[in-house]
Amino acid sequence: ASGRGWAIAPAVTPPPRAKQALRRAAPRCAAGDRAGAAARGEAAARPVALEEEIVSEKAAEESHRQDSANLLIFILLLTLTILTIWLFKHRRARFLHETGLAMIYGVLMGVILRYGIHVPSDVNNVTLSCQVQTSPATLLVNVSGKYYEYTLKGEISPHELNNVQDNEMLRKVTFDPEVFFNILLPPIIFYAGYSLKRRHFFRNLGSILAYAFLGTAISCFVIGSIMYGCVALMKVTGQLGGDFYFTDCLLFGAIVSATDPVTVLAIFHELQVDVELYALLFGESVLNDAVAIVLSSSIVAYQPAGDNSHTFDVTAMFKSIGIFLGIFSGSFAMGAATGVVTALISFSLFTKLREFPLLETGLFFLMSWSTFLLAEACGFTGVVAVLFCGITQAHYTYNNLSTESQHRTKQLFELLNFLAENFIFSYMGLTLFTFQNHDFNPTFIVGAFFAIFLGRAANIYPLSFLLNLGRRNKIGTNLQHMMMFAGLRGAMAFALAIRDTATYARQMMFSTTLLIVFFTVWVFGGGTTAMLSCLHIRVGVDSDQEHLGVPESERRSTKAESAWLFRLWYNFDHNYLKPLLTHSGPPLTTTLPSCCGPVARCLTSPQAYENQEQLKDDDSDLILNDGDISLTYGDSTVNADSITSSGTSRRIVGNSSEDALDRELAFGDHELVIRGTRLVLPMDDSEPPSSLVDSARHGPA
Amino acid sequence: ASGRGWAIAPAVTPPPRAKQALRRAAPRCAAGDRAGAAARGEAAARPVALEEEIVSEKAAEESHRQDSANLLIFILLLTLTILTIWLFKHRRARFLHETGLAMIYGVLMGVILRYGIHVPSDVNNVTLSCQVQTSPATLLVNVSGKYYEYTLKGEISPHELNNVQDNEMLRKVTFDPEVFFNILLPPIIFYAGYSLKRRHFFRNLGSILAYAFLGTAISCFVIGSIMYGCVALMKVTGQLGGDFYFTDCLLFGAIVSATDPVTVLAIFHELQVDVELYALLFGESVLNDAVAIVLSSSIVAYQPAGDNSHTFDVTAMFKSIGIFLGIFSGSFAMGAATGVVTALISFSLFTKLREFPLLETGLFFLMSWSTFLLAEACGFTGVVAVLFCGITQAHYTYNNLSTESQHRTKQLFELLNFLAENFIFSYMGLTLFTFQNHDFNPTFIVGAFFAIFLGRAANIYPLSFLLNLGRRNKIGTNLQHMMMFAGLRGAMAFALAIRDTATYARQMMFSTTLLIVFFTVWVFGGGTTAMLSCLHIRVGVDSDQEHLGVPESERRSTKAESAWLFRLWYNFDHNYLKPLLTHSGPPLTTTLPSCCGPVARCLTSPQAYENQEQLKDDDSDLILNDGDISLTYGDSTVNADSITSSGTSRRIVGNSSEDALDRELAFGDHELVIRGTRLVLPMDDSEPPSSLVDSARHGPA
Q1: What angle in degrees, to the nearest 10, is found between the helix axes of A246-256 and A442-470?
Q2: B551 confidence band (pLDDT: 50, 70, 90)
Q3: Share of chain B above pLDDT 90, in %
Q4: Keywords for this entry (chains A, B) (predicted)?
Q5: Chain A contacts in chain B segment 473-502 (CB below 8 A)
């Protein structure tokens, strides 16, 4: 992880290659033609060149030194945050979450950088006046016969010309927005996928998808249209200082529709809030990040044909929708695919690789990362791909890792996630002052706050109503209020907003988003505990206990509710994918039709049988709770033993997978733990006070 | 870690900010003045701007896509390497080490990139002819009234002008050399320091320092002068195509004097070679990296006054020597200081922080990293600082970490080290074909190989002879031959060579260094096993067994040998620093003079007493081996119990620390393990087949 941060400095400063180029520039002059230069070089023209070289060396060192200093600022901010977090955790203070804290420190540092530091301007800059009409990305400058390649760094408004250096400094600190998408977001999102509570996620799959897809779309359009009204108002009152189209409004809607799981869920987890609520919120916020990012890029891609731009155009709209579906499904497929490939590799190697957890971890890490790069290289959305890659990895690959590697990977991604998160939040605070093109417009801001409130409401309440028609275990009004309240905006909204701050509209959107994030994280994030208690939402629920408590009827109902959506998939997964890709799950010989017995036998890993055996023993405790499960295990083990008489196996499989689904829904974790299939998640754990205890518990004694 | 790699792409490509700048460029034209622009904007001039915007969007996406693809190449190379390493480890193949393997893959990929791929040239570049005499780092171009800032990327030789794009691609792959120093080297060096075998290191401190400092200096000057002769010959035969001064030769000497621990030591560890040899080689190669890097930078800083450059100048030389001492001691101090600070923080917090290993790990990681940045920001050498920071962390901070965090940090840095190492080596292979300014000169190359051979010989044999006069347990001739043979060049040499490839001389040096690395890693690295057997160096030595085997007399002698150097320091450390900075070590109350009893009591952590108690119990097994130690523990625990009667404590302390030194030298690890003080190192472990088993063993069952 160490390297990550360094990414920033090179990204935002004149690329270090320039330093070398500078060094290169001088001596070449001296070298002249290759033949007898050595002789001449020493005598003539050398001192000048040498001098130049020294000067440029100094410049290079100076800039490098400044980079280090800038990065050091962030490191110190993080360190400070960690120390204070520790204090908070120690004092059990919940009024302010670590992310809010990081932002505060960021703001303070931003003030210092903006008003405290002044860099003396450099004489080394040369202003060329030339007759090019466009400003190309690459510029070849012919300096007295030698060609130098220059890259475009950005436009400078004329009044800034005199203090380029200061802006230089500030720009260095406010580093390239792409860094967020390429370095900071991936680990966060991957970890979210990797640590997804699969059981609760699947139990509420229907509702979660509804909230994530429909909900995000709704709120996007609600916010978009409200903002458009707001912009129209501004135009009338003459407050508008630039172009602001409906597409921009929609984009804004998409940006601020991405809710952030971090803050609230951290508190939920600590308080062990009702698992239903937890699952709904987590699932929604993870998925709607993915939805929002694809949505925004497809809105950007909305380009009406012909000159009459920014008027409504059906074909263009359908094109955008097509793009949305294309990118989303593409990224999804890519992520899942890489996950499966990794699972296959690990399946075939790691049994023997067990001795080398370092290699396992390295491979796992590299494969997960290459998902992101692959998706980006193919023009899909890397972040989305990484999310689904994470889910797949957790579902399949994780089971093939050795215990050692399971913990290593988990801890590694936990750390990356932690650092990236706090970095982003402290950076948010920083940009409030260091970002140079802020554009705060009262009307717009007020409108925006009003809009996100309405948008969230239009997302939660109607959908909950509709879902409750289908759900047997309703989503209570208090839960609905809580979901309404818990709609914080965070890293994703910020990253989307800062990604492009070129136009006037985008700048205004960015500044507003920043304020929204601050407000929601500080106020809503801080008020979560209070809100929970005043909504009488039960806390301190042990997820497993809660489950054993669920009456048979209700479990059937939840099953029925979720089954229609993923029963098919579940059976396929449980009977064919799991056995093919992991060492857990039933042996193929029991799941495949009798005709392909030999194939099945050679494809099934020996451990699968062992697992079967295990099942029988380890479920004794389940038997106490539930009769039909013991039954199930009865005959599933029977047919595991009597593979030869596999004429009847098909029917039995039907049953056993049915009941397996049952168990998955009801006692999923139990069973999975036993089979060693389950991802032991920090979040998925039922022990107070925090996820860390969990890992500590699994850590070496 | 995910981020680390990404660092590369932004660093080497036109900074992504440019993409945004491009987007920015267009709409601004449309925006016009702020007042009623919105109204006009839509009607007039919009399509053009929009079009431009789309074009530039496309360009930006394209370049971003290419970055991802480039990085993907490296990730795949690493993945491939890991898979093959697994195969090797599985087959117990030793003829080729993973690093050598990585290089081979790199070479193959380099060939493909160089000759396989052709990028169509872009029309988007504009060539300006203008009358600036220098090529400044920053260029302000006035494009029809708007100012754009450009940064220098490098010079392009006129014949490359037509296929800029291809070079662009290649340059993207051969990314910025600073990346090595800022991203890839630090984790490697830190890990080296963190995993230093402290006991054996201290036992041979004298010899190691001699080899590292004198030895490196000697070989640097030997190589330098040989190469100067070689260059003179080339000049006579007219093969020389540019300036090549004696300082360049010296620089080359410094570059190739840094030996690489990785390959050989991996094999040594696997074969459990004689610990003496291991300690000597490891210590030397770790320290001489530091020496070489500082040496080279102080040679670069050698700038004679006046016009008669590159002639001998006493003041300048002394200035260089001063710089060497200054930078080295400065970096050392800074590294040690940060380490101590971290230790203090951890000492005061981590006892309570124990519940949150994530925070611990994060803090530890950030502090270690900030060492590097701090040193760089202050103009010292970050890599050197990181090395000593690592040693300090291992010595003090590590003891304050919870067991969980100890493993987390160890595994984290292990992984980083592993990835960085293989990345560098596969990158080396890549550059053989993708680097564009290679300059292979047969004479120079032959001379270089001859020189490094002589230089190594002039380092090892005379020094060993001198050291043997002092040492009681001589360094046998076969060990000397082995050290001679084991002088591989690796990551550091490469990083130093590629850091600056501006001048003709540097380019030639780089190409030659590359060949030297390839040759030594493949031939010497591959031949290690054979060499060991033909030199009759005993393998399969269990370091601890070996120690119990050491006769009393010899241990005394080794003690005497090493004592004069660090007895003083050891006593200070054992009596004052350890108790102050860690929770292990004897309570201050026993070590401080009686007068400061109260201070001592309040400064000593309660655990220290517990540790004392532990000592008594846990050393029962040692007592079996060695009499005087049980005695020692006898009275040291006595005076631990009788703190009140601390009139005599001073004397006893004298003893106990004496004997503690004894134990440190003889049974150090044993005792430290028991006290939980010792860093459980992969390298420090005596179980086959590889370091990974070690961590696996400590991993959760």
Answers
A1: 60
A2: very low
A3: 9
A4: Antiport, Cell membrane, Endosome, Ion transport, Membrane, Sodium, Sodium transport, Transmembrane, Transmembrane helix, Transport
A5: 500-502
Mean per-residue pLDDT, B608-612:
52
Q: Which of B134, B149, B357 sits opposite A699 (nearest CB)?
A: B357
Residue A18 banded pLDDT, cuts 50, 70, 90: very low
Of A101, A184, A157, nearest in space to A492 by CA:
A184
Q: Are B399 and B676 in contact (CB under 8 A)?
A: yes
Q: Which of A8, A76, A119, A135 to mutate to test the interface with B (most CBs of B within 10 A)?
A: A135
Closest CA to B430 of B48, B80, B11, B60: B80
* A44 inside 8 A of chain B by CB: no
Q: Find the CB nearest A76 among B82, B161, B370.
A: B370
Q: How confident is the model at residue B532 (pLDDT cuts 50, 70, 90)?
A: confident
CA atoms of B662 and A1, how far apart (whole Å): 39
CB contacts of A502 in chain B (<8 Å) are 20, 23-24, 27-28
**Binary contact (A154, B18; C-beta < 8 A):** yes
Distance between CA atoms of residues A686 and A147, nearest Å:
65
Q: pLDDT of B273-330, one tens digit each?
A: 877 888 888 888 888 888 888 888 888 877 665 555 556 677 878 888 888 889 899 9
In this complex, the residue of A132, A151, A407 whose CB is nearest that of residue B151 is A151
Q: Give the separation between CA A693 and CA A319, rounded to whole angstroms.
A: 49
Closest CA to A152 of B165, B17, B124, B54: B17
Instruction: Say yes or no to pLDDT of A214 above 50.
Output: yes
| A235, A373, A410: best to mutate for the B interface, most B CBs within 10 A | A373
Is the CB of A149 inside 8 Å of chain B's CB atoms?
yes
Whole-model pTM above 0.80? no
Q: Which DSSP state fits A260?
A: -
DSSP class of residue A119 equals: P
- Cβ–Cβ gap B379/A65 under 8 Å: yes
- Residue B113, pLDDT > 70, answer yes
Query: What domains, with CATH codes, occur in chain A?
Result: 177-304+314-542 (1.20.1530), 562-609 (no CATH)
The one-character DSSP state at A604 is: S
**How far B276 CA lies from chain A's nearest CA (Å)?**
27
**Bridge partners (DSSP) listed for residue A62:** none
Residues 6+ apart with CB under 8 A from B623: B629, B630, B633
- CA angle, B253 as apex, B252 and B258 as ends, to 5°? 105
**Residue whose C-alpha is closest to residue B227's, from B451, B511, B440:** B451
Q: Are A243 and A504 contacting, i.e. CB atoms less than 8 angstroms apart?
A: yes
Which pLDDT belongs to residue B589? 62
Question: Is A128 within 8 Å of B138 when comparing Cβ atoms?
Answer: no
Per residue in A168-178, pLDDT tens? Answer: 666 666 667 77
- Chain B CB contacts of A64 under 8 Å are 178, 376
Q: Is the dihedral of CA A7, A8, A11, A15 positive or negative?
A: negative
* Alpha carbon distance A451, A474 (integer Å): 28
CB proximity under 8 Å: A 99-138 to B:
122, 124-130, 132-138
Task: Using CA coordinates, name the residue in chain A closest to B123.
Answer: A136
Mention every residue, 6+ apart, whose C-beta is less than 8 A from residue B179.
A10, B7, B8, B11, B12
Chain A interface, best mutation among B151, B161, B422, by max A CB count within 10 A: B151
